[in-house]
Structures are given as C-alpha cells and as structure tokens.
Amino acid sequence: MKLACVAMMLVDIDIGNTRAKWRLSSGGVILERGFIETSCGDWSALAALRPYQPQRVRVSNVAGEVVAQQVRCIVARDFGIRAEFALACESVGTVTSGYEDPQRLGVDRWLAILAGWELFHDRCVVIDAGSALTFDFIDARGGHSGGYIVPGLQMMMGALFSGTSGVRINSSHEAGLAYGVNTDMAVQNGCFAMALAFIEKVMADDSRGRVAINVVLTGGDADLLLTYLPKAVVHKPDLVLDGLAFALP
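User: That's the sequence. What structure does it adopt?
Assistant: Structure tokens below.
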C-alpha cells in the first residue's frame, strides 16, 4: 500500500527594520500570512502557528542580533526546531554577488536578487521601495553588478521633519504628483516625485540603446509607485520571502 506524500509545512519570515512579514506555506500553497511590528517584540503570531507543526522556519533578518535571538527562542520553544537564517554570500547557482565583500551586502537585497534572477533569467533591475529605496542590477549571465541605496519615502520625510523647525508632517492624503498647496502635501508629493524620478532615470539610463531592461518592484511603497510606472514593471510583494527558497533550499 503506497503512503500519501505529505507536503512540508514551511514558515518564511522577512524581518525588516520596521516590520516583519511572514507566511506559512505547504507544497507551494500559502496557508497563512501576516505582519509583525519589529520594534514591539511581540512574536505571538508565530507561536499561533504551532498547530500546523512547521518543519522548517527560514528567516531573512536585517534588524539585528536581539531580534534574531527572539525568533530563535520562539521557534525552538513552540516548534521544537532550529530557525534557519539566510546569509549573503559570493554565489548561489549562476548568480554571483557584485560586492567587494559579498557578506556586506544586505541579506534582504541578496534574496531579492536571487528571486529576481529566477523570475527573468535575463538582465534586470530589482527595486525595493521600503525604508530605503534600493536598486540592484543583474546582467544577462546572472552577475550582480552592484546597485544604489537612497532614502525611502518615509525616511526622506523624516529627514525634513528632524532637520527643520517649521516642517511638521501630518499625512492626510495619498502621495501623488500634484503641486502641494499646503506643507504636508508639498513634502509628501515632493518626496514621492523624487523617488519616482530616480526610478524612471535608472530604467531609462540602463535601457538606452538596448532592449528595455526587466524591472521587478517590491517593498511597502510599491503599490503607490506602480500607479505611475510602466505596466511592464513586475510587482512581487514577497520577493525577499521568495528568495529564501533559493538561499536555503
């Protein structure tokens, strides 16, 4: 009598500086998903997955060792297994890091690069519109060429708030490209216009005289930016989580 094959229960976690994104999946099907505020230290949402009896927990963490230890403890206590943490490295498969010291590349960027390459298997740029706005370029052979890091929308607005005495932001509308008729609107839309212009410039410069480069966009501000970007831009909200499968197969 042949026994049915039971798919493994996997928990993947992407821990950023502001919040953590997690998902529970089995056999490629997402069963549960959610967010945790990184700073609050309340990981009870993970403990609530205990009835599923996860067999592996894979983690991307850029929030530091204290947070990493919190996750290790709760995974060991509630699931009886060891959390697996992804690390940036010199290469995975045909993808090679473009950093002088590959371990200095943020693990979230590395995982997004791996997932971006898997998506296109061709020249592309991976853009993460999160706390920071990051760009990573991959050539047609899977080589990471390097990238850019600039402040994200909230970070830009925060810099204006902390660096001036007269600017106090109380967001009451969604950012866009209209001219601001009050300080809130002027700051929000100005920062948004800067971020959008940089993305458009990167896409134009890298595509000049060649076939348009493939672009994948992820991060918390991606939905807003997509409204003003070409339809060819691919939106992958879980790009870092997707990359865990290639770094920790």
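The chain has two domains: 9-85, 114-240.
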